[in-house]
Amino acid sequence: MADWSPTAYLRYTDERSRPFGDLVARVLTDPASIVDLGCGPGHLTPLLRERWPHASFVGLDASPAMIERARAADPDGRYELADVRDHAAGRGPAPEADLVISNATLQWVPGHRDLLPALAATARQTFAFSVPGNHDAPSHRALREVAGREPYAAAVGPVERRAVGDPADYLELLAGPGWEVDTWETTYSHVLGGEDPVLRWISATGAQPVLHALDAYDAAQGTGLRASFDADLGAALREAYPRRPWGTPLAFRRVFVVATRTA
């Protein structure tokens, strides 16, 4: 997949940051070292530093653009290019830490459920993560439906529904001797402003694989599928998420897990 756009991702910083704050609030240990898996452009690092000012910190991300943005915004911080799967295998620049935390990243890792025990093993005290649980929401159903039409389907191929578990699923995967596991879900009622806000929201995250495929197809074939796709998806999203006088409401479900060692 092509690289991410930090600028697009940061368009709704407050809305995207709130679940991370809720996750951090449920971590009850006092880590001396922290690894953030999928740190993105580093916009959430201040939350970690505010909560644990004396802890060392390493942000890991597989996107060169995100790491570049994080280093530019926080030159005194440590941000390294790394893959979640390498971290799970004990490879990479920060193989373990007291707290290993991740926000809206693991859903992008194929077979992430199988990696969870190994990821938890890299945490000396606490392994905490959140993932979007909205892949059956109207936004994602519209994305799959529009991408499945021609001429887009020929350029994009099948659109995967990412396998994210429920709180009970993650509890079963991580609970066991030596661990106390807290899992829950929250549906946030965001109110987005501007024109086509749900299109802008999903274009920066969930729609990225589809949009990158269309951009690559346009570059190779000299077509303009991306522009027409944006128009068609935007129309579908406006119908699914009608604008109110005070903004456009977007219900967004998140799943949270905090696994803490007891021995």
Description of the structure:
This protein is α/β, with parallel strands linked by helices and 263 residues long. It has one domain (6-261): Vaccinia Virus protein VP39 (Rossmann fold, 3-Layer(aba) Sandwich), CATH 3.40.50. The chain contains twelve helices and seven strands. It has helices at residues 6-9, 13-25, 45-51, 64-73, 84-88, 112-121, 138-147, 152-156, 167-174, 197-203, 208-221, 225-240, and strands at residues 33-37, 56-61, 79-81, 97-103, 123-132, 179-192, 248-261. A seven-stranded mixed beta sheet has the order 3-2-1-4-5-7-6. Helix 3 links the parallel strand 1 and strand 2. The longest helix has 16 residues, at 225-240. The mean pLDDT is 92.
Summary, kept brief:
The chain has 263 residues and is an alpha/beta fold. The chain has helices at 6-9, 13-25, 45-51, 64-73, 84-88, 112-121, 138-147, 152-156, 167-174, 197-203, 208-221, 225-240, and strands spanning 33-37, 56-61, 79-81, 97-103, 123-132, 179-192, 248-261. The mean pLDDT is 92.
List unreliable stretches of 5+ residues. none
The CATH level-2 architecture is identified as 3-Layer(aba) Sandwich
Helix and strand string, N-terminal first? HHEHEHEHEHEHHHEHHHE
What's the story with the biggest beta sheet?
Answer: 7 strands, mixed
**Count of runs of 4 or more consecutive helical residues:** 12
Average per-residue pLDDT, rounded, comes to: 92
Using only CA atoms, what is the Rg?
19 Å
CATH class membership: Alpha Beta
Find the CATH superfamily.
Vaccinia Virus protein VP39
* DSSP strand count: 7
Q: Could you give the order of strands across the largest sheet? A: 3-2-1-4-5-7-6
Percentage of residues in strands: 15-25%
**CATH fold category name:** Rossmann fold
Q: What does the overall shape look like?
A: globular
Alpha carbon gap, first and last residue: 40 Å
Helix content: 40-55%
Count of individual domains: 1
Structural class determined from secondary elements: alpha/beta
